[in-house]
Each structure stands twice: as structure tokens, then as C-alpha cells.
Specification:
Layout (H helix, E strand, L loop, with lengths): L2 H31 L11 E2 L2 E6 L5 E6 L7 E9 L4 E2 L2 E2 L4 E9 L5 E9 L2 E10 L20 H13 L4 H33 L1
Helix pairs in contact: 1-3
Protein name: Mitochondrial acidic protein MAM33
Length: about 200
């Protein structure tokens, strides 16, 4: 065996050892600084809504308003954590991107709202009308920016959403749950990489 081969054999375990220590340190930090990741919340109630779909491996969550026998409207809310942004070197508070779809029971036309949820509230980015739910594709006209609408119309549309259960309880649940889902997925990724490196070493 040449000297170079011997050096490579000696260096490989050292590199693996440093990587494993770094991974385990990050795993330990995540476990100590974050609450335990939530399991699927499918079926639980949040105000007037029920979590209709939630998969720990997916990034989004879907809620539907509980419908009684006399309910005339269907309201669906889907949320996805927004991209990580930075304020200088520090990460900015996370936001969720939320879609709210309201339609009359048994009918196709729908109102579609794009919202941002942040700590302490939410804002509406756009409100659109669609002749059917099938027309919710990204290539459709999104309507004017919500901020350019008449202030009275803006307030009326916000009131319309509030009457349908889009409130602080719901938005706080969405933001917290989506953040915890991301934390859990990051921890699972770290453990997967740790297992891969452990086998390689």
C-alpha cells in the first residue's frame, strides 16, 4: 500500500466523523429548540372548520368548513408556508400563503381569495371570480390587486371572509401548524442523512 493510499484511508473516517458530529449536533439543537413535530391533524376541528387533508410528508394542509344539512355554501382553505426571507442576516418571521375558495352548494361558480397569513393577522392579495372550480388554474386572470380596490369594497370583502370563519383562530392554527410541519420534515431529513453517512462510514 502506498503512502497516499494509507493517508486516504485514514482521512476518510475523520471526514465521516466530523460530518456525523455536525449532523448530530444539529439534530440535538432541533430537538431542544422546537416542540415535537405534529402528527397529521386530519379530522380535527379548528373553529368552524375541519382539517380535511394533512400529510406529514407534504408541505400543505386543506381545511373545509363543517357543513350542516341547511348549509348553502362550501368554504375550503388551503395553506402553504411561504419562502424563507431574511431581514439582513436574520430570518424574517414566516408567513403562510393561503387560498380561500367560497362556492354555493351544488353550483359551480366560486370566489377565490389569495391571502398572506402572518403573526397576528392576515391580508388579502387578490379576489377573483371563477365560473367553475375547474377554472382555478394559474393562467386565469387574477383580478386587480386587492389594495387598488375601493377601501369600502376591501372592508366589505374582509367582512365577507370573517363571516365565513376566516379569523385569527384559523390563521394562527395554519401558521403554527405549517411551521411545525416544516420543522418535522427538516428533522427527518437530518436523520436520513445521518443514517446514510453512518452506513457509509
Amino acid at each position: 500500500m502506498s503512502l497516499r493510499q494509507a493517508q486516504r484511508r485514514t482521512a476518510a473516517p475523520l471526514r465521516y466523523g466530523r460530518l456525523l458530529r455536525a449532523l448530530r449536533s444539529e439534530i440535538s439543537h432541533e430537538l431542544s429548540s422546537s416542540p415535537p413535530p405534529l402528527q397529521s391533524q386530519a379530522g380535527i376541528s379548528v373553529g368552524d372548520f375541519v382539517v380535511d387533508w394533512d400529510d406529514a410528508r407534504a408541505q400543505d394542509v386543506l381545511l373545509r368548513r363543517r357543513a350542516g344539512p341547511e348549509e348553502e355554501e362550501e368554504v375550503a382553505v388551503s395553506g402553504l408556508l411561504g419562502p424563507l426571507r431574511f431581514d439582513g442576516e436574520d430570518p424574517a418571521p414566516r408567513e403562510a400563503l393561503v387560498k380561500v375558495v367560497v362556492k354555493k352548494a351544488g353550483l359551480d361558480p366560486a370566489l377565490h381569495f389569495h391571502c398572506r397569513v402572518f403573526d397576528g393577522g392576515f391580508s388579502v392579495g387578490s379576489a377573483r371570480y371563477h365560473s367553475s372550480v375547474a377554472d382555478l388554474g394559474p393562467d386565469k386572470y387574477r383580478g386587480p390587486s386587492f389594495s387598488t380596490l375601493d377601501p369600502l369594497l376591501q372592508n366589505a370583502l374582509k367582512g365577507y371572509l370573517a363571516e365565513r370563519g376566516i379569523n385569527e383562530q384559523l390563521t394562527a392554527f395554519l401558521l403554527q401548524h405549517l411551521c411545525q410541519k416544516e420543522d418535522g420534515q427538516y428533522l427527518n431529513w437530518l436523520r436520513t442523512v445521518e443514517g446514510f453517512v453512518t452506513k457509509g462510514s
